[in-house]
Amino acid sequence: xxxxxxxxxxxxxxxxxxxxxxxxxxxxxxxxxxxxxxxxxxxxxxxxxxxxxxxxxxxxxxxxxxxxxxxxxxxx
Length: 76
Prior knowledge:
The chain is mainly alpha-helical and 76 residues long. The chain has three helices and no strands. The protein starts with 12 loop residues before the first helix and ends with a helix.
């Protein structure tokens, strides 16, 4: 019965590519967040649009990349 739940994680080259893409996506969101914070309100379509972009990017950064923490902590 113990062999049914035996899980052996063997990362292949595809995992490296996925990690590189995740790092690039993380950097892009950080770049977009800094750009949205530094732009004046006049560059947005409405005054509330700046706040919406900042909140959306911050939530996407926290919730969208939350799976990375789970992956890192699951591997011994």
